[in-house]
Every structure is written in structure tokens, then in C-alpha cells.
Amino acid sequence: MQAEKMWEVSTGKGIKVAVIDTGVDPSTQSLKGRVLPGKDVSGAPGDETRDDTGHGTTMAELIAGSGKRGMLKGLAPDAKIIPIRSNLKGVRGGGRDSTGAEAIRAAADSDAQIINMSFGGAPHPTTKEAIEYAVAKGKLLVASMGNDAEKGNRLNYPAAYQDVVAVGATDKSGRVADFSTRGQQAIIAGPGVGIPGWCDGEMQRYCSEKGTSPAAALVSASAALIWAKHPEWTANQVSRVLIKTAGLKDKDKGPGKGIGFGAVRPRMNLLEGKGDPGDPDISPLTGERTLNTKSKGASSHAKGSDEDDSDKETAPDKVKVADSESEENSNVSPWLAVAAGSVVIILGAGAMMIKRGRRR
After folding, report:
1. Domain range for residue 194?
2. What is the CATH classification number for the domain harbouring 148?
3. Exposed end of the chain (fewer CB within 10 Å): N or C?
């Protein structure tokens, strides 16, 4: 991903990312000074700074870690984290927010521009309403698609909602990872194999992780880099550029079965200036108007109608787009492959890496 070169252009400074997860421990060397006050809606003992599993803290470090003293350096190291602790698996004593709706609304009401949701479950009307609420407030929503490709390949929400950038995982060769959930809801992919992460809530050592959770965090960090470079853009424009610069050959054909339009490549915009941001008010995910940043007199309407064709665009439909069976549409070509090892940097020999299975 050429992170070092991208950091000469953007480090995510000025961008805030809400991390809805198991909590974020702000005391790790990598996160000191990078975590802002958040909210705990889990109903569990403690607050949003308590992380019983290490999962939320890992996501935060992948996004904005400083890399100090052998800790993780995130892809957007100058971004800020707003932790939102929800009642997710591993949160001890949690009893509220079983659908994630309250957490999403809390993130939408925060100062965060981006909401990272590295979790998934069943659909629920209150969750869908919370997603729509966040979109109307101009937030960019990113969610992991799940790790169920080999176990039923079930849909995971909120990633399957059309207003969310659904993220799959690539392996070290840039191909869709074996475990990464497939489906028409796929929009983009991030590195998801061999990613360092805290082994548990003790925060004593890193393990080698895999999953769509870290992939989503790295997509959120990519969005932070682009938004920091173009602070005048809207969430629609940032997500559109993420899609247009993704590394899949036939991206004009719509989402594929595993990695959508391809592997995330923020460098294409930051270093090469590619990616047309398009209309600030129209979502590239649905083709519908979600914002109203333009003045009423800024655009003319054909034949006096209240809405013209400029309010819509061709967009990936997470339900109607046909799956592609070709290898070309399912995998990133070798020259576009994203090497997971180049995304996050372990500084120093102090970070102990040990192999273990992925965290669900």
C-alpha cells in the first residue's frame, strides 16, 4: 500500500473515527493521546475504555496507532478514535444494545466522520433505522462482512445494509480469503490475513490474526487518509473514491462475490490523484440522494420537476447485481494485490508475535 509514501501526503490528521466494538483501552503505548471521550452503551461494568477481549483496542490501533515502543502503527496514525462500547461477544456482563442500534446512534451523534463496525449479526429494524439516521448525518459507515464463507456463508448485518461499505478480506496474495463471507453485498476488501492484534484483554502480546474485522478497520483508516487530504468532501465522495480506485480489473461490472470492486488502494488518490469524487449528495452505494449540501438554486431541474436525473447515478445494488463466476472478477490481479504485511508496521523487536486462530 506504500504507507510511508502516503504519509508524506496524509496521515489522517483532523479525522475522527468512531470504533463500535468491545471498548478501546487508551493506555497502550500506541494509543496514548489518540483516544477521545466516547460512550458505553453495553450495560457492562466499566466504561468505553475497558476492553475485555482486546478486539476493539486492536481495531483502534490498526486505524490510528502511533507505533511507539514496538506497538502497532496504524494506517492513519494521526486520526483520532472515539470508542463506543456495545454489548458484543466477549464484553463481560453486557446486557444492553443487543442489536447495535444504540451504539450506532451514539456514534452518529458524536463528532466522528467515519464509523467502523467490525462486528456482525442478524438484521433488526432498529439497527436499520440507526444506519439511516447515521447516513442522514453525513457519516461514512464501514462494516466487516463476516468470516462465514466456509460455515454457511450467512449474511451479516450491518454490513448487508445498502448504506454501509461492506468489507471482505484478502489474503497475502491479494485474493479473497477462504473464510471471508461472499455475497452481492460486497463493496470493497482490505487485508485480513497475518494482521497483528492483541491476543486478549490483558494487552501483553500480539498474535497473528485473520478476519474481516481488521480488513474493515484498514478500510476505515484508508477513508481517513483520503478525507484528511480532501476535508471539503462528503462521506459520499470519500466512499465513491474508495470504490473507483479499488484494485479489481472489471470494477465497472459491479460487486463481485468476495471482494466487491477490489482491494482498497488509497494511494491511487493520494499519490496519483485518481478517483472522481462526483456529486457530494448522491450515495455511490444506492444512487440515491442522502445529503443536501447544495443550495436550492445551485442546480436547475428539467421541465420544472422537483427532481431530475442528476439526483441519481448508476450504483452497485447489494441485492440485484448478478454475481460473477469468473476468477478475474473474484480476485485481484497480482500487480494490484495488497500485501497485508505492508499495511501495518511493527516497530522494534518488542512486539511478540505468536500464531493462533482467528478471533470470531
Report:
1. 3-16+104-281+320-342
2. 3.40.50.200
3. C
Known catalytic membership, residue 213: yes
Q: Residue 305, SS3?
A: coil
Alpha carbon distance 179, 189 (integer Å): 13
- The strand ranges marked E within 90-192 are 114-117, 140-144, 165-170, 188-191
Chain segment 318-354, per-residue pLDDT in tens: 543 323 232 333 333 322 233 333 444 443 334 433 3
Angle between helices 55-64 and 212-229 (to 10 degrees): 30
CB 83, CB 110: distance < 8 Å: no
pTM of the entire structure?
0.84
171 is catalytic: no
Out of 42, 213, 239, 283, pick the active-site residue: 213
State the total domains in the chain. 1
Structural domain contains residue 133:
yes
From the candidates 10, 21, 42, 279, give the one annotated as an active-site residue. Answer: 21
